[in-house]
Design goal:
The complex is a heterodimer of chains A (about 550) and B (about 280). By secondary structure, chain A is α/β, with parallel strands linked by helices. Chain A is built from 20 helices and 21 strands. In chain A, the strands form 4 sheets. A 7-stranded mixed beta sheet of chain A has the order 9-8-10-11-13-12-19, with helices on both faces. The longest helix of chain A is centred in the middle third of the chain and has 18 residues, at about 320-340. Chain A starts with a strand and ends with a helix. Chain B has helices at about 20-35, 55-60, 70-80, 95-100, 100-110, 155-165, 175-190, 210-215, 225-235, 260, 275-285; strands spanning about 45-50, 65, 85-95, 115-120, 165-170, 195-200, 215, 245-250. Chain B is globular and about 70 Å long. The model of chain B has no long low-confidence stretch (mean pLDDT about 95). In chain B, helix 1 (about 20-35) packs across helix 7 and helix 4 packs across helix 5 (about 100-110). In chain B, helix 9 (about 225-235) links the parallel strand 7 and strand 8 (about 245-250). Chain B has an 8-stranded mixed beta sheet with strand order 2-1-3-4-6-5-8-7, sandwiched between helices. With about 280 residues, chain B is α/β, with parallel strands linked by helices. Chain B has one domain: 3-Layer(aba) Sandwich (Rossmann fold), CATH 3.40.50. The chains are: A alpha/beta (about 550), B alpha/beta (about 280). At the A-B interface, helix 7, helix 8, helix 9, helix 11 and strand 15 of A face strand 1, strand 2, helix 3, helix 5 and helix 11 of B.
Chain lengths: ~550, ~280
């Protein structure tokens, strides 16, 4: 099959995400492009979890409404999702747990007979999916053996029983010619992009959907040669990162909007002290606690304006894992090039969904900032033509390095003298010219997709671009996606939209944050298609809505 | 330049008679001693918060980071995690450390990060012109408590002992030599050191007479005995009354430090070896 979807559902604690990951990994190794959305409520046990995995022979970065196979570990999965089953699709369910229409297998009994724990029904579910995909037992066996390091034999017994009882092949897989691509989540790509740009210290307090950056880096910190730190709160996280950057370490912090709110004073501190730090903000629906485990694009205005005082910042908004990797690396390098705070604005959909990673030739490397050459007396805030002062770090003989939150002179001593205050405000703002030049000329700040010169263009950003690009291709319209949002690439955006008679803003938020921002820069967005239920657009849904607008 | 050679050109704006002067000269003396003992001045990094106390970073010509209110411990932690080779010392006030940023102080003590924090404890907000702080005595009449504070003071030494601080001391700004020695010991101590310094505020809470009458130096006290340290810390509750107020080293114990346990010998600020991220992706993802 060219393009198909599998939905696996159960309650929290059933190991749904684990099976989703195994199935996605398997399909990826078969050369499919994969998109895997992990849907779960904010609780530990109970509720309704499901993994929605789409596999396609061509590049995809969003789900469809309809699915080919539903594997249900509880009745709720069937009740909620049977309407999305395609004609000819299959529902497999645990007949020991409930009654439903479809292929009932005694998953619970298999687990019991093998002496397993109830959660091991997910092993049975995986084996059933393997069988339906036409995999040989040896392939299923190897994956189970590699994936379940504990109770391996019990899991194998369960898998074998399930494999034998499952029906025939319903999803016809042929190994594709494509070289399999690595799979990763947006948060993993952010972590790796930062590491490639020289991340030394990642500091974070857990908050969904940013938490898995911390988990991933903590799990691999030795191999990656960096250190992770989980302090008492987000305020400590951000200030620790600033202290470490002052002392010469490349640092990043990450949270969702609520945690980032606590970091606002540190954003301002980074700006005044000219300390480079990368802030990752992964959006979830607010205001306040909101809908913790779902997605939105509602914090654009917050990230663009967080922190008191006037200062420069660099903001990127990746839309897939390739961009997450490259743009996080860019954010780190730009933070150090200009000694300003930089932001990676992501969302639950990008952060926690699994994509194929195909970064092409775009390597990320650590680009050195401007360093003190050791000549003359050191001045941390030396006023230079471009506004960037050479860096030295504590421990350097001959340099006294004085960083500060106060307005200061070139040496870093507090000042309230009018001329000195004016000079230092201007010194910091001098960086704007270089930063703007980079964004407008050297960097790809705005991406475009679809036929050039199309009358109609979709203006979108972040993870929503995945659905937009696929829908636009089907409908023959263009897509324009700014990936750098501050400094705002107004020229590049106007140029990308030059031929479009109608611009449609597509965003997962309630107001159209990017459309409003574009309007401030003279780009008229005639129509807005907005979604604010915490779920990303599906292809089917978005296609219908775009068709409705273009008539 | 003073005799220490550590002065900057910054104009000193503390009030005449301010207890901060004693802390400044103690700090300078301590840094000179440490330099003489093999910790070059460029390996010293100090940080401060906001308040009269925190102006000290402008007055000492060593590496410094003038941070924001309450956030001295995380600033110090970041510096130490970036470069364990630095001696990292914070200067902060009671409002800053025990009010705005108390959680950071407690957690830094708990994790035993190898930094030293000197609290300029004048038991009043000076820079904001006279309000009660967490260590002001009950009944303190400040501008925000004109009828007298109804809160009992916090005993920071008792709190630090409970939090697991591995070095807990109290100094008195008038006894600068004694304080300089405490700072030297605190910096040399491997682990989190807190030195609470009784510091009169000449303008808003003049406690010179009170402290001069009550303060005595600890003698014959076993600094490894936690219960004895607690008993000494409780001799005075930071209230308006006191029999006697002990100063000196209350408690010192060796425990592995957070930085040595998590850094795996790395100096993050001078990291040379870089992982091959492409190879990592090929093998893991």
């Amino acid at each position: 099959m060219e393009d198909f979807s599998i939905l696996i559902g159960g309650k929290a604690g059933d190991g749904i995400r684990q099976i989703g990951g195994l199935v996605a990994g398997l399909l990826g190794r078969l050369g499919y492009h994969v998109f895997f959305w992990d849907d779960y409520p904010s609780l530990i046990r109970g509720g309704h979890n499901f993994s929605l995995i789409r596999a396609c022979r061509c590049m995809i970065q969003a789900n469809t409404d309809s699915v080919d196979l539903i594997v249900a570990l509880n009745a709720e999965t069937v009740d909620r999702h049977k309407s999305r089953l395609k004609p000819g699709g299959t529902i497999v369910f645990d007949a020991d747990a409930f009654e439903a229409e479809g292929l009932g297998l005694n998953l619970g009994s298999m687990v019991k007979q093998a002496g397993g724990k109830p959660v091991m029904r997910n092993t049975a579910a995986f084996a059933v999916i393997g069988k339906m995909l036409g995999l040989k037992w040896e392939v299923v066996e190897k994956i189970v053996r590699d994936s379940f390091k504990k109770a391996t034999e019990i899991n194998l017994a369960i898998a074998r029983a399930a494999y034998d009882q499952a029906g025939g092949t319903t999803l016809d897989i042929e190994a594709g010619p494509a070289e399999p691509l690595p799979l990763m989540t947006g948060n993993e790509a952010i972590a790796l992009g930062a590491a490639a740009a020289g991340l030394d210290l990642y500091v974070a307090y857990p908050m969904t959907p940013a938490t898995s950056i911390l988990h991933f880096l903590a799990a691999h910190e030795e191999e990656l040669g960096l250190v992770t730190y989980h302090p008492e709160n987000e305020i400590a996280a951000a200030v620790t990162a600033i202290g470490a950057a002052y002392a010469g370490a490349r640092t990043m912090v990450g949270s969702a909007g609520g945690g980032f709110a606590l970091m606002a004073e540190a954003v301002s501190l980074a700006a005044q002290s000219e300390t480079p730090v990368v802030f990752v903000v992964s959006q979830r629906p607010g205001p306040s606690t909101g809908v913790p485990t779902y997605t939105t694009q509602g914090d654009l205005g917050f990230v663009l304006s967080a922190g008191h005082g006037e200062f420069l910042r660099f903001v990127v908004a990746p839309g897939d894992v390739n961009e997450a990797f490259e743009l996080t690396g860019l954010a780190m390098n730009m933070a150090w090039k200009y000694q300003i705070p930089a932001f990676v604005l992501t969302d639950k959909c990008l952060s926690e969904s699994t994509y194929c990673f195909d970064a092409g030739g775009a390597a990320v490397t650590r680009e050195e900032g401007l360093l003190w050459d050791g000549g003359g007396g050191y001045k941390r805030y030396l006023d230079t033509e471009g506004g960037v002062s050479p860096l030295a770090f504590p421990g350097t003989a001959g340099a006294v390095v004085k960083g500060t939150s106060y307005e200061h002179d070139e040496y870093g001593i507090t000042t309230e003298v009018a001329e000195a205050v004016t000079a230092m405000q201007e010194k910091r703002m001098k960086k704007r010219a270089g930063l703007a030049r980079d964004v407008e000329t050297d960097l790809e700040a705005v991406k475009t997709y679809g036929p050039p010169g199309s009358d109609t263009a979709i203006l979108t950003w972040g993870s929503t671009k995945g659905a937009c690009v696929e829908v636009a291709e089907a409908l023959g319209v263009g897509v324009v996606q700014p990936v750098i949002l501050e400094p705002f690439p107004a020229e590049a955006l106007r140029s990308a939209l030059a031929g479009a008679k109608k611009v449609i803003g597509v965003e997962v938020n309630v107001t159209g944050c990017l459309a409003d921002l574009a309007a401030c820069h003279g780009v008229e967005v005639a129509e807005r298609i907005l979604k604010y239920d915490g779920r990303p657009f599906t292809i089917d849904d978005l296609k219908k809505k775009v068709e409705g607008v273009i008539g | 330049m003073s005799e220490t050679g550590l002065d900057t050109y910054a104009e000193n704006t503390w009030c005449k008679g301010c207890g901060n002067f004693g802390i400044l000269s103690a700090a300078n003396a301590a840094f000179k001693t440490l330099a003489a003992e093999g910790r070059p001045l460029e390996t010293i990094a100090i940080a401060s918060g906001i308040g009269c106390s925190s102006k000290i970073v402008d007055y000492i010509d060593v590496n410094s980071f003038y941070s924001i209110h309450g956030r001295v411990p995380p600033t110090l932690t970041g510096i130490k995690l970036a470069n364990r080779g630095l001696s990292v010392i914070g200067f902060t006030g009671d409002g800053d450390a025990y009010g705005e940023g108390l959680a950071h102080v407690i957690m830094s003590a708990k994790r035993n990060i190898d930094v030293t924090v000197v609290i300029h404890n004048n038991r009043v907000y000076g820079l904001t012109t006279g309000q009660f702080t967490p260590t002001s005595p009950r009944g303190f009449r400040g501008k925000s408590t004109p009828r007298g504070s109804v809160e009992h003071p916090l005993n920071p030494l008792d709190l630090m002992l409970a939090a697991g601080a591995t070095f807990v001391a109290r100094g008195f700004s008038v006894k600068a030599d004694h304080l300089a020695d405490l700072i030297v010991q605190g910096v040399k101590h491997k682990g989190f050191a807190l030195i609470d310094v009784l510091q009169p505020c000449f303008t808003f809470f003049n406690t010179y007479k009170f402290y001069n009458e009550k303060v005595y130096e600890l003698e014959g006290h076993d600094v490894s005995d936690l219960e004895a340290a607690r008993a000494r810390a409780r001799e005075w509750d930071y209230g308006a009354e006191a029999e006697r107020i002990p100063i000196g080293l209350f408690y010192r114990v060796e425990r592995p430090t957070y930085d040595e346990e998590v850094l795996r010998g790395l100096v993050l600020a001078a990291r040379r070896e870089r992982a091959d991220i492409g190879a990592f992706i090929r093998s893991h993802m």
